[in-house]
Write a structure and sequence with these properties.
Layout: H1 17-36, H2 43-50, H3 54-60, H4 64-87, H5 93-110, H6 112-124, H7 132-139, H8 141-153, H9 162-183, H10 189-202, H11 207-212
């Protein structure tokens, strides 16, 4: 005894336990929500699967809605971490773009449950200001805009507003993700990435075609 306090003996507290348990819950929740949908998912089934009391779930997530939205956030967090880890050591900007697109399409093709949750979020929570995938997309825009500004400055990309570039490429990539989910992929993720990159980087018009093309005027 020291200073009137009795030291309690036992195993030291694991500071990572809370985070690890939270990730385990979210991992199981993603699969359950993807299979049954938000409305039909019973959190008791999730508690049973994890062999914990239902009260344990509510210590981590106060409601089913909180649990679902945290699961969607985890989907996007893992997606971004996967892409970031693949491009972290790539210096060439064009190669960074190429690898990012290939990694993204490969990741979502291997994790269809993740795409299902993004769709469910939009259907179930239309009152949200922005869906989670748009929040993450916008959060990473500035680094890509900066990359395109550098490419423009070095004469590798046409001098056009970088917002046009990021919007078009983002729409192509996310559109491919959702089209694959609904219709099934017609090609492998690598082939689809190559098609996107070829059309974006090379265009579809020859030099002769560009000379003949008349840009339509806005009405």
């Amino acid at each position: 005894m020291k200073n009137g306090l009795v030291r309690k003996l036992g195993r030291p507290v694991d500071p990572t336990l809370w985070d690890r348990r939270r990730e385990e819950i979210l991992d199981a929740a993603v699969k359950l929500f993807a299979k049954h949908g938000f409305t039909e998912t019973d959190t008791q089934i999730l508690a049973n699967k994890l062999q914990v009391g239902k009260g344990t779930l509510y210590r981590y997530f106060p409601s089913k809605e909180d649990l679902f939205l945290a699961a969607v956030d985890r989907v996007m967090r893992q997606m971004r971490q996967t892409v970031d880890s693949r491009i972290a050591d790539i210096v060439d900007p064009l190669e960074r773009i190429s690898v990012a697109i290939r990694t993204f399409l490969t990741f979502v093709s291997h994790n269809p449950d993740f795409v299902e949750l993004l769709i469910q979020e939009r259907a179930q929570f239309k009152d949200r200001k922005k869906p989670t995938y748009l929040e993450y997309r916008e959060a990473s825009l500035e680094r890509w805009k900066s990359l395109y500004r550098d490419l423009i400055a070095h004469g590798q990309v046409r001098d056009i507003p970088v917002e046009r570039i990021t919007n078009v490429i983002g729409d192509l990539v996310y559109g491919t993700m959702f089209t694959n989910y609904f219709n099934g992929p017609r090609k492998s993720p690598e082939e689809q990435a190559d098609d996107i990159l070829d059309i974006v980087f090379q265009g579809i018009l020859t030099d002769a075609g560009r000379r003949l093309w008349v840009r339509p005027t806005s009405t």
